[in-house]
Specification:
Mean pLDDT: 86
CATH architecture of the largest domain: 2-Layer Sandwich
Distance between the termini: 39 Å
Strand content: 15-25%
Strand order of the largest sheet: 3-4-6-5
Oligomer: single chain
Order of helices and strands: HHHEEHHEEHEEH
Number of strands: 6
Number of helices: 7
Helix content: 40-55%
Radius of gyration: 17 Å
Length: 155
């Protein structure tokens, strides 16, 4: 895996687990994690990843994955597989459960894994069910909403 890819995955992981408020704070955390980065590199990564600033629970601004960019990933080339396989979707806490047609759980899982959705820790597929584990409740809700919209479009 390229250094840039590793760094950007680390950035996504860091901002979903921590309230990162500034580029300087992100640079410091990345340097402590072993990435030699400049402010220009951080700025470019933020732009390429489509990160946005949102209000945190404490009322301060923090970096967050862009929900619109996440929807783009869901509506990309693997969306038709997921749309054809999925019957329903719901979430509880940081878990997303997709009910699929019999025998389509693994296909839906492979499609979701290929989408490389931000904040997804992993997935587990059965015969007619797919479980997606996310970093937090908000990411689970956004993914559930996006997949629900995709299912609705396919009806």
């Amino acid at each position: 895996m390229k250094v840039k890819t590793k760094r950007q995955k680390a950035i996504l992981d860091l901002i979903t687990k921590n309230e990162v408020k500034t580029q300087e704070e992100l640079q410091s955390i990345l340097m402590n994690a072993g990435f030699a980065v400049t402010q220009a590199t951080i700025s470019r990564d933020i732009r390429e990843l489509g990160l946005v600033k949102v209000t945190s629970a404490s009322g301060e601004y923090k970096y967050s994955p862009n929900a619109a960019k996440e929807r783009e990933s869901i509506t990309g080339k693997f969306s038709s597989i997921l749309a054809q396989a999925a019957r329903s979707v719901d979430y509880a806490g940081n878990l997303v459960v997709i009910k699929t047609y019999t025998g389509m759980g693994s296909a839906a899982g492979a499609a979701v894994d290929s989408m490389d959705l931000q904040g997804v820790i992993g997935s587990l597929a059965g015969d007619d069910t797919l479980l997606i584990i996310t970093c937090d409740d908000e990411i689970a809700r956004r993914i559930s909403d996006s997949i629900s919209a995709l299912i609705e479009q396919n009806i």
